[in-house]
Amino acid sequence: MDKQYLEKLLDNMLSTGADFAEIFEENTISKSYNYIDSKLDNIRFSQTNGIGLRIAKNTEIYYASINYDDLEDVYNLSNDLKNNINDKVLYKNIKLNDLEKYKADYKISYDDYSDEKIKEYMSKLDKKIRNLDKRVNQVSLTLMQRDDNVTISNYKGIYKKEQRYNTRFYVSANFKDGENVASSSFNWGSNGGLEILEKNIDKELDKLIKFGVDKLYAKPCIGKKMPVILGPGFGAVIFHEACGHAMEANATANNQSVLAGKIGQKVANDKVTIIDDGTISNLWGTTKIDDEGMPTQKNVLIKDGVLVNYLNDEINNRKLNMQLTGSSRREDYHYAPVSRMNNTYLLPRDDKIEDMIKSIDFGLYAFELGGGSVDTESGDFNFGCETAYMIRNGKIAECVKGASLIGNALDILNNVEMVSDNLEYGVGMCGASSGWVYVTIGEPTIKVSSILVGGEEDDK
Amino acid sequence: MINDLINIANKEGILLEVYNVKSKSVNIETLNDKLINYNISDDNSYKIKSIINNKTIVLNYESLENPENIIDTIKHNANVIDNDNKNSLTENDYTMENRKEKNDIDFSVVKKELLRFNDYKDKYPFLLNIDSSISYEEINVSIDNLKHHLNDSYNYIYVYISLSGKKNNIVKTKLVNEYYDNFDIDDLKNKIEKAIKELELEFSATSVFTNKYKVLLDNNVVKSILYNMSNMFDAKSMFMKLSILSDKLNQKIFSDKITILEEPLNPKFIVNRHFDNEGTLMYNKEIVKNGIFKTAFNNLEYAYKTNSKPTGNASGFYNLHIKEGNKSYNELIKELDNGIIITQVEGLHAGINHITGDISLQSEGLLVENGQIKKALNLIILSTNIKELLNNVIEVGNDLKEFGYSISSPSLLVDNITISGSGDK
Lengths: 460, 425
What we know:
heterodimer; A: alpha+beta; seven-stranded mixed sheet; 9 helices; 19% helix; B: alpha+beta; 19 strands; 40% strand; globular
């Protein structure tokens, strides 16, 4: 869509009195290579190209999305949209700025590696994993790559285009010994290109096998309230779920968050400083601009236990009247954007992991967590443990299965007792009203003094 | 454009078929007395299946403007992948007959109705927020290859309401999910009133001590678990040893009380589907009969690989449900006598392990003593395994409820299930 047409379309969208208008154009090519059963099973390919039109009046949002072959269909859709508003015209004759372009940050582009080379990488890795332990009975490898090109233009004259590369590799192995089955997996990803295939993953493979084999013989988890150590990296899903979502403006601006109205208040233990930063080079959740065209930035959300900021988007911020944080995100053109996290992490401190373990008579060490979810209004959250061990008398004991952790955001923030110095990042997909977006979550190993753990009846 | 692509492929010696989905939707979301979002969408997508050198290549596009690029991608992918995916184009034809009348909805009226829900706050002052959303979707699907054509269409309405309340500084939330053929505002209001009363109970909720309990799982809970474990019935998962039911076909896997049906053609459900995205005609079938695993879902590839009849499940399943029993929900509570009703589960994407079948889900519930509901429970965890859960079923309720076009469920009374909690013995 050329600049002149975009201006004409914005004028039409604003012609019934809207006080906000935005056009989001998107072209994406995604490829996903799945290697399973020691074969390249398929290459999934998809190409999307569509447009999202958004207008607003005060805090009411009207959104339309379409994939089109004919520009007239888009114009007709903008008419359907604007007919929802009938007021004095506030903006007309929109003039867009010169186009600002942002290129994806990769070292190896998707065109630099042939499909044959990718297949060879997967084939070698498959053999290597199968040779590591005879109980491995299936290996599944997936390389996902997405070349996303978005153009944002709006009523203020913003006219920006960003190319976003997102590349992720999943490794999953299944283990079988008699009737016992278990699975173990890890993945890594980046807001970059195929250079992720050059990462040395030997340590991760050792863990994959150790955890998979331990899980084969795992005992039922003991269920009750207990102290819990959370491993580094993806363990931070606890902060993502328990308080990250509660700091997003679509929850805070509408009084639908347990943290609404608490700016300046002490909400966590002194050791808790939480940052969301969309600018960190090549992290999975990084973008140069958000989906409203604002540059992303480093946002300190909780500092030494005090809530200092929320993540904002333009429309929700009309209620909050704070500074925009460059956090407006959406899965794709089908969704109106809302404030979302990018790369959220807990700042490291200097507690020692050995001291954490020693301090617990009976508790849980969750090395790897699965996903989770939170009710932002009540603060109640839950998440599942992928790999966990009981701690008995200050020592790591048996591997346990079926552990999940539940609690309330405010309790957990206050119960973070020890924080180590080994900050690591994990990659994930975060789902909310504007769809699934790429997020990084990071933390060092931490000890939480008490969490309710799901499992079997009390230890005898 | 579809025919152009098919013809170009044909000239290149490629068998090609296009599955086209056209969907239109309207969604309105209100928060209390304010409109938050009004969304409309108009989508068109193409799944292109092609067979070249005995390999099957599937690509997804939103536009067929560059057929030459599509053909090049097909040829390239066929050279790289190893999968000897034996497959074929559809030889079926189908034309939708007796088309259901399109729902006629006046969205300006619906919007006013949603905004009026704010009045519940006058009647129930503890209510904090009423977040309501209604979606209408209208979908047309077609399949074309050189010789055959199929088309089908369906539509439905989905309502999602999140209620929150606050008492003594404690905030609780409750969800209402309803799925309609025709929007029924009176039915919806009844459901909201019921949910508000359950919400009020939750302010005094406590936990229980970790133990084995007799448990009544609400139909929405059974639905969530079955939906999230459904790939255990998938032929590909079984073939790849990724299902707990690999090698279990025709064996007893669950209690005699459990019969699981897939009924895409049964007119009692809101949406009927007639063919999958490979053009296989759908039919009603028993997945599990009296506890015995009878049919795995497959697509053409895995029908060939497992030497089975194609089941028409290349695009998922429709109207999957546990067959209803005879007892009403209230009769099940009486039979529960002393135990726990699980009314809601959270965190399904994390709390269910598809490979081992382990289930560990944050739950809300009600404590029942002597057949009477005594109090609400929260911060409890349902800890079990899908095999244990469906083997320990004592009774199946007659309260089959539709939760969407893919799945429905009745409530289940189950014995001897671990509930973890933070309460004292």
